[in-house]
Structures are given as C-alpha cells and as structure tokens.
Here is the input.
Amino acid sequence: MNTLQLPKIQTVSLEIDNKIKACLDGKTKPLGALGRIEEIATQIARIQHSINPTMKTCRLFLFAGDHGVAASGVSAYPKEVTRQMVLNFLDGGAAANVFATVNDVSMTVVDAGVAGEPIAHDLLASRRIAPGTHNYIEQPAMSKAELNLALHNGIELGSEIDSDAVAFGEMGIGNTSSAALLTHKLSEHPLADVIGRGTGLDNLGLKKKQWLLKLASDRTPRELTPNHALQEYGGFEVATMVGAILGAASAKRLVIIDGYIATAAALVAVKMKPEARAYCLFSHESAEKGHKHMLDLLGARGLLDLELRLGEGSGALLAWPLVKCAAEMMTRMASFSSAKVSDGSNH
Here is the structure.
C-alpha cells in the first residue's frame, strides 16, 4: 500500500459554547467550582454537540509492537518482554487488566508487529505488519508501504469504534526511544531534553541511550514531516495508534490518550490532521522526561499527575471515571432554578 487517504475529521464547532457555559454556570455550585471537570464536560459537549452528553462506555485498545533498536540496548529490558507482556494482557494479569475490569472498560490487544510467531487468541486483534521494525540507528524503521498499512489498519479500527470514548495504550520495548525521536524531529526541542529513563535505566544506561539516539537522529535532517518521522523512527504499534486516533476522531469519539508514547502518537496525528486535537483528552502527565514538552506542543495539560511511567493505557483507564463524572454532572446535576436554590444574584 503506497498511497493512503486520511479520513475526513469534522472541525469541532464552538457555536454551542454559550449553551454549555449557561448550563454549567446554572448548576448548584459557585462559578467554575468544579475546575477541570467543567473543562472535560465542555469538551465532551462540544464533540457531541449537546448539553446532555452521553459518556457510558469506553474501550481500551492496547497496541503492541517490537522495535529493532531494542537490540542495541536502549532499554533496561530485553525485547522478549513485549511478547511476554502481550500474553500477560491476554491472561488478564497486567495493571491495565485490573484497571479496565474495575472501571468496566472492554479491552482489545492489537498485535501490530510483535516479534516471533503470530499470536492466536480470542481477545487479540491481529494487525501485524512484520515481526518488529528495523533498527533505525542503521536504516528507516519501516518502508513507506509498511507505514501506510499500519496507518490504514489504525484508521479502520478507530473509525469502527462504537463506544462513547476510546482509550489508547501501548506495549513495546524500546518505544520511549521512538517517542523521543519523534518529538525531537517534529519540534524545536533538543534531543537531550526529551530522552528519559524509560523502563528504569541507570545513569550508565541513560548515557548509552542518549548516545545511540544521537546516532539515529544524525542519520536524517533535523526536522521531518510527520509521515517521514514516523517512517524513520516509529514503531508499528505507534503508527497504528496514529491511524486509530485519526479514525476515532473521524467517528466523533472522545479519545483518551495515555502517557508518553501515546502522546507521541497524538502529536504525529495532530501534525497530520490538526482537527484531531479537539477530540483528544490527555489523561495524565507522565514521569518520563519529555512528556511535558510534548503536552506543551499540543497545548494540553495532563488531567492527572500520579508519577506514572507504565504505559499500557494505565493512565487513560484511571482518567475514565472522571470523564464519566463530567458527563453525568452535565446531565444530572440540578440547576439553581430546578432545585430552588438561591444563586446569590440578589445579594
């Protein structure tokens, strides 16, 4: 697949904003007293173009893929852990499984390119491109055809989502390196400012990672287009997630973005289609160095700050109850007039 048509994403209209503000300001509370919950409610109401939004169901898509660069030693864990964790997800043993179960979120694991033999399981969606990307220190991570197929797969998954919201997470040893390079190539941030410890590198491991990523970065021009950056430094799970963000936005779904890697996918998606930004809710600010820079580039703030650095959709799942509460507040909380409570206007 050498050509790809990106989906049309409807620009979120602000014409309902006056109604949203009147609805929120009329609730039995001081003006703005629910802080960022009111921001979430406003975003949901805009997307659904209604002051009575529905936010009952959410599905987590967990994209998994291996990175050729992992063989060079950019992670504290060997690449075999990607496959082992995918099996753990399918067995229900990961943090993502626990958080999803507690919050009644359905979960789909997507094999975008896990090394080894294909995995067969009822809870796994196979969108396998290849058993991992190439080592981008030496060559592009993927071909243009592979990139377009990954984007196509993601767009297809995202556009078919029937839940009110969708949460995106990932698993792939070495993918914090991919996220750092994508951020560097799509912004003015120096590479050193966006490289973190990932899965827990010690100081020596961090220096090695910085050196290896500098070699990878020097192989291409300082700034790249989003497609070119993704082809050079992305993972199959990241590229598929980019497509899924675009697809979900085209279906007018709220997209709950997880941490550092998921935000890198969102950054690429928004660079490709700026209209997608209004559909993205950023669940938390990761402890991973560089995530704050990414959020700033997107004009976003993480909803939570729990010093998370796990990935796998964990932060997005923890944010989901707040999203539900924001929508329910819009529809079920009494107004001053309906509750016969004084709004203070006569004082």
Residues 314-332 form the longest helix (19 residues). The chain has a mean pLDDT of 96.
